Each structure stands twice: as C-alpha cells, then as structure tokens.
Amino acid sequence: MAHVKMQTARSTLTDPVAVAEDLLRQLHGPPPKLVTLFAARQRDQRALNRAVRERLPKATRLVGATTAGELDNNGIHENSVVLGALSGDFEVGLGLGSGLTGDAIAAGAQAIKRACEELGVRQQDLDARRYVGLVIDDGFRYKKEELLLGILEKNQTLVLVGGGASDSETDPARQSALIHVDGEVAGDGVLVALFKTNAPWAALRSHWYVPTGERMTITKVDETHTRALEIDGQPAARRYADILGVENIADLEFGRPGGFALRPTALKVGREYFIRAAWRPLEDGSILFANLLEEGSELDLMKAGDLAGMTRDFFQEELPRRVQNPQAALLFHCSGRLWYAQAQGQLPKLSESLKLAPSAAGMNVQFEIYSGFHINTTLTVLAFGSN
C-alpha cells in the first residue's frame, strides 16, 4: 500500500507572522514532507517565507510561488495565501536553476541536476513510472521552451507538469514573479521538485476546447520565432481575422469575445490537443504567440466549449479514472482561463467546480507546462492517490 495525501489551508491575514501561524494552525496529523506556498504577489514574500519556514519541522521541504490568484477547493481567490501540506509515501528532491534570462537551457539543467542529486539518482536513470517533475518558473521571462530543453536533455521520458509564477499586475512594465525554495526566494529562475513514489499519480491537463477539423499553416515567422508573419501564405493577422469572421483585427486579441480565446490554435500530439493560443495582433500585421513557432508547422483550429462544465467533468470523471483513490491535486490554472471566465460570467461556476477536486492547492499561472510542452489556456494538474 502506498499513498500521498494533502491538507490545505488558506489565510487572508496581512502580517506575515500572523499568516504563517494562521495557516499552520489549520493543519493536523503527521508532519508534512513537502509544503507548497502559493501567495499573492503583493505580499512580502521573503518575510512570509521566513515566517512559514521557521514554523515548519526542519525535515519538511518548502516550495512555492507568487500568483495571479490562489486556488483551493473553495474556489479561486485574490490577495490570499494558500498552503498545501503533502504527506505519505514519497521522497522529494528540490533544485533551483538561476539565470533564466541569460541561459534558460543551463538553468533548467541546473535545476534537475540538483533535484536528482538530492534523491541520489542519475538523470538518465529516472524511471518515468516512479518519478515525476513539478516545474515552476518565473513566468515573465518567457523561457519555458528553452528551460524544458535543459531539464529533459538527459532523459526525455520524464513527465513534467507545472506553470509560471505570476502576478495580478496587468501592466507588463510592472509585472514580476518570485519562486520559493526552502528558505530562498528568487526571481529569474526555475524550480524542479522531483517526486519519487510508488503511489498512484498522474500529470493531467484540462481545457474547454474542441477541434473544428480546420487547420492553418504558419508559413513565415520572424527571427525570434514568436511572431507569425504569414499564415497560409497571407499576412498573419488578416488571415486569422478572415477565418474567424472578424472585421477589426484588434478584436482578435486574447480576452476579447470573438478573438483568439474563442477560436485558439492547438498542436495535435497523438490524440491530444495542446493549446498554444495566439496572444496579440500587432500593428505590422503579424501575430505574437506566447510559444515558439516554426515555419511550416500546422496548427489545428479549436472552438470554445462549456468552460465550467468541462472542468467539472474533468474533476468528476477523468481525474478519478486516471488516478486511483485521488487524495491530492496541485493545480496550475492559466490566467487566461480566469479572464475568459470573468468575461463570460462563468467565474462563479468555474470556482464551484473546484469542490469536486480531491484536496487541492494551486495558483493562477503565467502559462503552463505539460509533458515537456509549453502550453496556455489550460489547467495542468499533478494528482496523487492511494492503492
């Protein structure tokens, strides 16, 4: 018999010491092996980290991140702190890679190397049935694809899931993110928490889109490989607008009712569709994507379904089917899902769906990681159970 369980706690207090005491007072049972700390960006992260770290057993590991909103079974919250306390039959190794901006591949390689060293295992010897990696990066560095190359360089079979540390600030010039690793709080980095367990687990993802059968080809990109200059041999923004029946190209922007959020693109991998939605039309007629683009790549065009209903079905049907006796779920929820739910008046129903999850703690993130891919507009989940 093996199991992994999680207790959760949430605090809306403001003083870091009071928050730490409030959170830990809500816990009971055996000392946790790992604590996750998801805190609103406006909090004093270092003081909060210090207060929580001082009150945890020395053997308990601590990871966390700044958020654009915090999640638990009671819904999606603002300006709070959510704690998840994991216990049971697992070991965990932590690694922090620094310098994402300068060399994201090296940062990813550094993070997984340190996590493996803590567990006493070589990267190339990681058994994908017993090991899974949780990844949290500084989301505003936009380096997910490069850091993933570093993490997976010596073992491409390792399953990874997570998302970007974030901020509820909407002004790009003022956005920043921080990551917690035990007593250290840092930006411009990436965390890998490497789990080893015989308990049931799964990395999962949920989005609210269905394929339309239509496809488009990225026929020309810029030198950064983040802007589509042409789609199907035509100016990118105008072509996408014509496909969607949108007259004003500015209305394509993600978050607007009839634009990219309604009809995003996806990369088909086997039978799965990984959402890699376009982000913003630019004045020169190109389209900015959050992920890297390759000339000649084909993307499927999706259409929106029932956001709250499909999330409810995910927790009620798919997660229990994939994880035996689910006991814990770490949630990495795209901020774009939040914006869309708010715009469509679905946020109360979306929050309500979290009651159907196993014990849950998570955050609204700046883009997501799933199975080695940088994706968006998705809820990614690391779930554990018992056998």
From TrEMBL:
The UniProt record lists the FIST domain at 31-235
Give the InterPro entries listed for this entry.
FIST_C, FIST_domain_N
Q: Residue ranges of the FIST C-domain domain?
A: 236-372
**Superkingdom assignment:** Bacteria
One Pfam family per UniProt:
FIST_C
Q: What is this protein called?
A: FIST domain-containing protein
Record organism: Corallococcus coralloides (strain ATCC 25202 / DSM 2259 / NBRC 100086 / M2)
* Lineage, top ranks: Bacteria, Pseudomonadati, Myxococcota, Myxococcia, Myxococcales
